[in-house]
Design brief:
The protein has a 3-stranded antiparallel β-sheet with strand order 1-3-2. It is of the alpha+beta class. Strand 2 and strand 3 form a beta hairpin. It has 3 helices and 3 strands, in the order ααβαββ. It starts with 6 loop residues before the first helix and ends with a strand. The model has no long low-confidence stretch (mean pLDDT 93).
Length: 74
């Protein structure tokens, strides 16, 4: 089972996802629901998300299919 994010961590991830030109507001909302409920999600990235997320020590980033990133908790 995935380790779950706390509310502060979720807020930090959401801030990064909302600033990304790669995602629509709906995609951000869906990603945040998956992170909250399942502890991981896949997001489409054009480079900005992976770079910004690297500064959050509690987020694990893995490369997925078609250039997607899988975000999870360390």
């Amino acid at each position: 089972m995935n380790r779950m994010f706390n509310l502060n961590e979720l807020a930090q991830v959401e801030d990064i996802l909302q600033r990304s030109p790669s995602l629509t507001p709906y995609e951000v909302q869906m990603a945040m629901c998956e992170l909250r409920d399942q502890g991981s999600c896949y997001v489409r990235d054009q480079g900005q998300i992976e770079y910004a997320i690297a500064y959050l020590p509690f987020v694990k980033v893995e490369n997925g299919q078609n250039g997607n990133l899988r975000l999870g908790h360390w």
